[in-house]
Amino acid sequence: MARKFFVGGNFKMNGTKESIKSIVKNLNEAQLDPNVEVVIAPPALYLQLARDQLTKAGVEVSAQNVYDKPNGAFTGEISVSQLKDSNIHWTILGHSERRTLLGETDEVVASKTKFAVDGGVSVIWCCGESLQEREAGQTIAVIEKQLAALAGKVSGDDWKKIVIAYEPIWAIGTGKVATVQQAQEVHEAIRKWLKEKVGQTVADETRILYGGSVNGKNCKDLAKEKDIDGFLVGGASLKPEFVDIINSNQ
Ligand code: PGA
Q1: At 218, which CATH number?
Q2: Which atom of ligand 1 is nearest to the CA of 173?
């Protein structure tokens, strides 16, 4: 089965009502490759605004995080059922900024992922190594540990609701994109791990995105690699060049 190209826009803690309306308007009016699944992730406060303004077929809205408990006394959190109530069917989980700045462990991220998919919300699950880990030759081991925590929680059809984003931490927001070879090497290792530990079908069908300083210029070469099935884009998703990234696989 061919994997549908996927491009996510992670706005992080950026934007205003006006700027988000303008990004969405730009997407509504753009010529987008119909063979690409697009998901934009504004800050929680603007999810509903983005959802209400978006008219473009094939473009969905995603949260940047969700909690792994039913509604209740969890100050500051957002639940899976609240996302669905707002017609939001995606969330990013395990972004390195949440792992490093907010202390989310592999196990917390895996637990949130399971809770989201069980509740019918699909997940862009992020993984990636630090510069120190890369320089110590630990890249694949770090990713495999993150994957093992995930695979310890999810199984079977859960994988159909998961997109993996490989985001080397040293490439995020630094302008220092991984080379095509560096990215492809890790993507291939992730697919091999999925095949060996989960199964051939999951390995064949799971989209593996690259993230880290993707822009309108470097996206085309990355998109050509056989194991790169799309992108998770931070900074450039706030700019008009996001459309070029969406269309990079044409
Ligand atoms: P960046 O961020 O494109 O700004 O490097 C990517 C991400 O953190 O998802």
Answers
A1: 3.20.20.70
A2: 5
